[in-house]
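The material for today's practical consists of a large collection of protein records. Read left to right, the backbone structure tokens trace the chain's path through space. An example says more than a description, so a record of this kind follows:
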Amino acid sequence: MSLFSTTFQTIENGISYASQKQQTIAQNIANVDTPNYKSKTVSRTSEFRDLLHNELEAYQTDSKHIPFSGSSQRVITQQGNTSYQANGNNVDMDKEMADMAENQIYYEALVDRLNGKFNSLQTVIRGGK
């Protein structure tokens, strides 16, 4: 029996993902005027698999089925198929700013959930007082 639920690990993975995504967005914004710079994005390959693994106990009945176990892996991809500027750069500032705002909301929700878990633990330690 573990002392804590897997919620802490899930929140930690989410915060790590949000941090890496923030760094990638900041890098894109910093290179908005760099000739031939191509924007990058971060995606999670097993976001739903982690959620299902933590919520359900499942059995893989066929080798072709998606496994429920495994850690979340992040993939940084370069968007090389477009150019928004004459110098070959494809950073769209409006999209980057919208992505940054969305990522900030995601991060704040995770931190709020983490604070709630710690507050619950404090209540238990204090004996409900």
Summary: The longest strand covers residues 40-44. Strands lie at 40-44, 74-78. Residues 48 and 68 are 9 Å apart (CA to CA).
